[in-house]
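Incident log, structure service

09:12 report received: a user says their structure output differs between two submissions of the same chain.
09:20 pulled the input from the user's history:
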Amino acid sequence: MRHLIAALSASIFAAPAFAALPVDGALNFQPAATRIAERAHEFHNVLLWVITFIVALVTVLLIWVMVRYNRAANKTPRRFSHNTTVEVIWTVVPALILVGIASLSFPNLYYQNVTPNLGEIAATSKSLLASGKTAQHLAYTKNNFPDAAEKGFVNIKVQGNQWNWTYSYPDITDDTGAAIEFVSNGIHKGRPGDKEIYEANTGRTDFDAQPVNLAVDYPMVVPAGRYVRYYIAAADVIHSFTIPSFSIKTDAVPGRLNEGWFLVEEPGVYYGQCSELCGIDHAYMPIEVRVVPQAQFDRWAELMKAGDFDAAATSVMNIAGLETQTKFASNN
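09:34 re-ran on a clean worker, output below:
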């Protein structure tokens, strides 16, 4: 009964969630949902201006050379093998451009690929505030999240299979010590019986409303405003765990454990797909991440620990706004 009330509470206090998915005819990237993605987009925008300038300059030079030095305008060409000044310029200038690009790229790669030290983030934030360095603290918290660091990581083990994903939450265990673990299958397989199979397996009737080749039966669920650290491997062949709105792409390799992280502040539904050709059903191996307020995540975890996967999935079908967390908490 308690679990049923929890599921009903999620439905009552929830609203339609923001969904990050590809849109036909759209330009640019999907909206950034993480600081990792924001930094990647900022770097892309700078690089776009650099590339535009280079293309424009080269185009002007080509036109100038074609007009100034064509056979009609230059009937008696001079004979020389090289020009030292020109050669130095076209060697040094591109090298300096690459150094400038690298100076912007390397910090972003480090930020994305090195898992944050949460203890250090919390300590640095407190030190800056204690020293009255407000401006430095503001700049520091643009890329680091002290409040989330205080709460620690949400750890998830991701395993790629042919052709679905297995998610394990090692820190969330039931009374027997068993961790939450479940398999997430794409509901679209390109077959006539997809709808009937989905409805028979889940008891839901929302198949037609789900985004094609993106929706799953049991999504990954994480709390908003928390550092999520994921470990990833594969059971058979190489897969790739990719979520465009997060700007994360981590290979799942058999016999190897890779690691990544993200933090999403805005509750919603975020989609991705396997991005490594992994076999005949590669196109039907989507990733669905539902980011919910902490209280709703706790409710989902309780239902999962009780083994009621369908009620847990129902409890996050609609996602509560952050301001409604106290309503969920009041039902404890």
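09:41 both user submissions now match this output. Likely a transient worker issue. Closing.
09:42 reviewer note: Residues 118-147 form one domain. The chain has three domains: 2-31+153-329, 37-113, 118-147.
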